Amino acid sequence: VADAQYGLYVWPCAVVLAQFLWAHRDGLRGKRVLEVGAGAGLPGVLAARCGAEVLLSDGEELPRCLRHCRRSCRLNGLPRLPVLGLTWGRLAPPLLALPPLDIILGSDVFFDPKDFEDILTSVYYLLEKNPHAQFWTTYQVRSADWSIEALLCKWKLKATRVPLHSFSADKEHLAGSSLPGRHTIEMIIISLATPDGT
């Protein structure tokens, strides 16, 4: 990685999540979508191009990433797409002021285990505020020791695995790009658990 701010790159997980959005594009029109840890914003930009009402966000302490995300919006013909500074685990005014949401997107946000609980804390807050919303996320399997299972239980969240072949993302090259390559990518949909834990 050439820069400490990972959000300046399109990562393999972003291409896989974008493929999922493309496969479900007919259902995106009018949906209210927030992309967290957007970086270059590929999934969120695609959702906006498919007719969703999108907000992009990345860490408020990463101004270079936020500028890069805004530039990506301009280059994709979406100069007015809002880009917010939101930091995982922090209940700051921008997070509290978010409008109602239907979908939360996050590609490769489960990158560093020290951030896992902060991410799920923010996701839990958003899902509690929007009980019918879902968090659609893709992640790269980097270590068998890294798991969010215990944190999902702690925060009363459930995860449903989405097989990549179900949306034609089980290939080394998607949409004319060389990504995702030979990386092991997984996709899950996270939602609030029901009172019985399911």
Structure classification:
alpha/beta
Specify the helix fraction band. 25-40%
Taken in chain order, the helices and strands follow as HEHEHEHEHEHEE
Largest sheet: 7 strands, mixed
> Strand order across the biggest sheet?
3-2-1-4-5-7-6
Outline the low-pLDDT stretches: none
Give the helix tally: 6
State the assembly state of the protein chains.
Answer: single chain
In the CATH hierarchy, the architecture is 3-Layer(aba) Sandwich
N-C termini distance: 39 Å
Tell me the radius of gyration: 16 Å
GO molecular function: methyltransferase activity
Protein name: MET23 protein
GO biological process, one term: methylation
Keywords: Membrane, Methyltransferase, S-adenosyl-L-methionine, Transferase, Transmembrane, Transmembrane helix
Short description:
The chain crosses the membrane at residues 6-23. This protein is an alpha/beta fold and 198 residues long. The chain contains 6 helices and 7 strands; from the N terminus they run H-E-H-E-H-E-H-E-H-E-H-E-E.
Describe this structure in words.
Helices cover 29% and strands 19% of the residues. The chain is built from 6 helices and 7 strands. It has helices at residues 12-23, 42-49, 63-75, 93-96, 116-129, 149-154, and strands at residues 32-35, 53-58, 83-85, 103-107, 134-140, 157-161, 185-192. The protein has a 7-stranded mixed sheet. Strand 1 (32-35), helix 2 (42-49) and strand 2 (53-58) form a beta-alpha-beta unit. The longest helix has 14 residues, at 116-129. It is globular, with a radius of gyration of 16 Å. It comes from Crotophaga sulcirostris (Groove-billed ani).
